[in-house]
Specification:
about 40% helix
Length: about 110
Amino acid sequence: MTGRPYSARYVGSLVADFHRNLLYGGILLYPPSVRSPRGKLRVLCEAAPLAFVAEQAGGAASDRVRRIMEIAPTGLHDRTPLVLGSTEDVRECEQFIQGRHPALTSERRSPSGG
C-alpha cells in the first residue's frame, strides 16, 4: 500500500490489466455477476497462472474467500471470481466482501450510522 488514492483503470485485457498492476501497484477485481455467479475466469488457464505469478512477486490472489492456488478444479472449465494484487490489498478486499472490515463493523456499531 502506497498511501496514494486509488483510481480505476480498465484496459479490457486480463493480462494487460494485471501487468499494469505489477508495474504500478493496485488491485485487480474480477467479481462474479448475475449472469456468471461462479465467476467468468477459468481456474486452470486464467486465474491459477496469474495467481502463481502474483504470489511469486510477493502478492496474493483470492476468490474472495480462499487462495486461488488452493482451488482444486473438478472440471476443465471450472470458473472462479478473482481478486489479485498486493497481499494487504487482497486481504482488505476480502474483509469488505465478507462484511468483516473494521470500517464496516464500526459503522454498524455507531448509533448515528456514521
